[in-house]
């Protein structure tokens, strides 16, 4: 019996969909961006605020939530981390009195994380430096047209990763950018400094 792999059509079907030159020229800069931008944001936050980018995302997402409280599972999704990673981060932040963790009053099977007043002050103090980094690394390098294209391309890729995702989440769309003097509202690149 003749081997199917001897058939050119069968061999082509088994061949990986290699990127062509144009696709590679688009992919390599994106691959570098995926690696280098989070590291640069993390470095700025560690140097200036003593926290990681993930920890900042946790704090800022809580600062945006009603009563500054979210279920741990919801917080993990919003901060783009696993529940295990979030649990370790929240433990560190609890030790610094920035987060309080307690059972949900609606359903005791779930744990809530709440941003304390000290935690909110930390977000407000950290946000300006973070926003400056986002602006320096991304925003100021792009024209308004580039920014619109970046948003559209990012949304397309996000939908490929998570077809059900809506970005930004609906409850964040209506929040306006403002300054720390306006309390729980959005600051710079995210609500009360978060999201970038």
Element string (H = helix, E = strand): HHHEHHEEHHHEEE
Tally of DSSP β-strands: 6
* Major sheet summary line: 3 strands, antiparallel
| Category by helix and strand content | mainly alpha
* Fraction of residues in H or I helices: 55-70%
Low-confidence stretches: 173-194
- Mean pLDDT over the residues: 84
Specify the number of helices.
8
What portion of residues belong to β-strands? 5-15%
The first-to-last residue Cα distance is 59 Å
The rounded Rg comes to: 21 Å
The geometry reads as globular
Order of neighbouring strands in the sheet with most strands: 1-3-2
What's the short story on this structure?
This protein has 196 residues and is mainly alpha-helical. It has helices at residues 8-14, 21-49, 53-64, 72-78, 83-95, 117-137, 144-161, 170-173, and strands spanning 69-71, 99-103, 111-115, 177-178, 186-187, 190-191.
Give an overview of the whole structure:
The protein is mainly α and 196 residues long. Helices cover 57% and strands 10% of the residues. It has eight helices and six strands. A three-stranded antiparallel sheet has the order 1-3-2. Strands 4-5-6 form a three-stranded mixed sheet. A hairpin with a 7-residue loop joins strand 2 (99-103) and strand 3. Helix 2 (21-49) crosses helix 6.
What does the secondary structure layout of this molecule look like, with pairings?
Blueprint: H1 8-14, H2 21-49, H3 53-64, E1 69-71, H4 72-78, H5 83-95, E2 99-103, E3 111-115, H6 117-137, H7 144-161, H8 170-173, E4 177-178, E5 186-187, E6 190-191
Parallel strand pairs: 4-5
Antiparallel strand pairs: 1-3, 2-3, 5-6
Helix pairs in contact: 2-6, 3-6, 4-5
